[in-house]
Specification:
This protein has 19 helices and nine strands. It is an alpha/beta fold.
Length: 489
């Protein structure tokens, strides 16, 4: 029996995706380097399903109908290259390799170019939703060889999550575009998680609330504009008790890990000169948390204000302000993320379908939320929307939330409680709405010490200060008159 689809990698995500594909009426071949995992899977979870187990790469490839559709779910980096090298001797022109791992998009670009030259169609697909998503409907973000899309579209859209009846899967773009969008998704995920953590910290320290009381607040928030997977799971975490009846969350070491996708997003934002400040702060917050022993020493040396717990009578107003701060900051984070995607499209020559990207994230993935439905509407209404903040829905939302947002950040500062994500979101908002920023002084400083030049405002153009020209001034009378090269970062 020839299979419709093949998948390599039988960790939990791989097994669940195979079961998902089989449940939708397709026959699936599976392979794992440790072949005992294949046998165990066939004897247990896959028993009685249209799943074919293979014990070698050659047997695996031979079991799949042409053009072969082969998905890899292995660790990013060199293992992907090694597996591709093993597959190639058995593949034919027009066969399709799909990398469903968290590969860095430049690696996908490279593999796409190499395999295109060999006649193999290559797809780098973001897969989000965790174990449950893989089993019952993930968000899928495929990109790469456009000729592969008609071949994989039916399967991918069948197994993906659905939002308002539409599949959370569409073609993203060429080369590494799919993995790029997944990278930005993960960066936004970093930001969302950090914002929720800051809200939890403020409720705990300023309002003196217990984890269960905070859980109740999140349950309420999850019935409105903040309805999302991350709010939902945080609600559940905060009401989970250890065997001694005490909240488990309070026993967990406050040192966060990371796998690198958030860092990649922040680094790419710097490369493109895009002010994706909230994701950057979320990454740095994890880095700060990781130096636990150093922070412990600093806590005994460095002074700051004592936290003033608010009276119970003010708690409701505080929680409402905090809700508005979280909502507004979340809007900023997504606005920054879509700014980055929009500019990456220009930089790399990728035509991104912005409404489709928002829809792909609407269901199945970690950042899924009601909120993303409004982003989909905004881009469907104005496909070339410059910034989400220019859409009436988000403009009105930020305007309404602004008072509570500012009060929350001010209260945190006065109490010495770090809110890097809330604060940077507000700073970005105030910077973005400023027609003039103090970068005029910064350019003068650069010209003073390094002859890096500046340009003059049109209204002040003159014979000695011509508009649109790079100008160098001898600020002291003793410097040179030759300007250095300048560049835009």
């Amino acid at each position: 029996m020839s299979s419709d689809f093949g998948l390599i990698g039988l960790a939990v995500m791989g097994q669940n995706l195979i079961l998902n594909v089989a449940d939708h009426g397709y026959t699936v071949s599976c392979f794992n380097r440790t072949t005992s995992k294949v046998d165990h899977f066939l004897a247990n979870e896959a028993k009685g399903k249209s799943i074919v187990g293979c014990h070698s790469i050659q047997e695996f490839v031979a079991s799949i109908k042409r053009p072969r559709k082969i998905m890899m779910l292995v660790k990013a980096g060199s293992p992907v290259d090694a597996l591709i090298a093993e597959l190639l001797p058995f593949l034919e022109k027009g066969d399709i390799i799909i990398d469903g791992g968290n590969s860095h998009f430049p690696d996908t670009d490279r593999r796409y170019a190499e395999l295109t030259g060999k006649g193999i169609l290559y797809v780098g697909s973001g897969v989000s939703g965790g174990e449950e998503g893989a089993r019952y409907g993930p968000s899928l973000m495929p990109g790469g060889s456009k000729e592969a899309w008609p071949e994989i579209k039916e399967i991918f859209q069948a197994i993906s999550a659905k939002a308002d009846g539409e599949p959370c899967c569409d073609w993203v773009g060429p080369a590494g575009a799919g993995h790029y969008v997944k990278m930005v998704h993960n960066g936004i995920e970093y930001g969302d998680m950090q914002l929720i953590c800051e809200a939890y910290d403020l409720m705990k320290r300023v309002a003196g609330m217990t984890p269960k009381e905070i859980s109740d607040v999140l349950a309420d928030w999850n019935n409105g504009v903040l309805d999302s997977f991350l709010i939902e799971i945080t609600r559940d975490i905060l009401k989970y008790d250890d065997v001694d009846g005490k909240p488990l969350v309070e026993k967990i070491l406050d040192s966060a890990g990371q796998k690198g996708t958030g860092k990649w997003t922040a680094m790419n934002a710097l490369d493109l000169g895009m002010p994706v400040t909230l994701i950057g702060e979320a990454v740095f917050s994890r880095c700060l948390s990781a130096i636990k022993s150093e922070r412990t020493r600093a806590s005994k040396i460095l002074s700051g204000p004592a936290v003033s717990t608010i009276p119970a009578s003010e708690r409701a107003a505080f929680v409402e302000d905090l809700k508005q701060a979280l909502y507004a900051s979340k809007i900023i984070s997504y606005a920054q993320g879509f700014m980055l995607i929009r500019n990456a499209g220009k930089e790399y020559g990728w035509e991104f379908n912005m409404p489709s990207i928002a829809l792909m994230w609407r269901g199945g993935c970690i950042i899924r939320s009601v909120f993303l439905g409004e982003i989909t509407k905004a881009y469907r209404k104005t496909p070339d929307l410059e910034n989400l903040l220019f859409d009436k829905f988000f403009l009105d939302a930020v305007t309404t939330a602004q008072s509570g947002w500012r009060k929350t950040v001010a209260l945190a500062t006065l109490n010495g409680i770090p809110t890097p994500a809330f604060s940077t979101a507000l700073s970005f908002y105030d910077g973005y709405r400023s027609a003039r920023l103090p970068a005029n002084l910064l350019q003068a400083q650069r010209d003073y010490f390094g002859a890096h030049t500046f340009r003059v405002l049109p209204e002040f153009a003159s014979a000695n200060l011509p508009e649109g020209k790079d100008i160098h001034i001898n600020w002291t009378g003793t410097g040179g008159n030759i300007s250095a090269s300048t560049y835009n970062a």
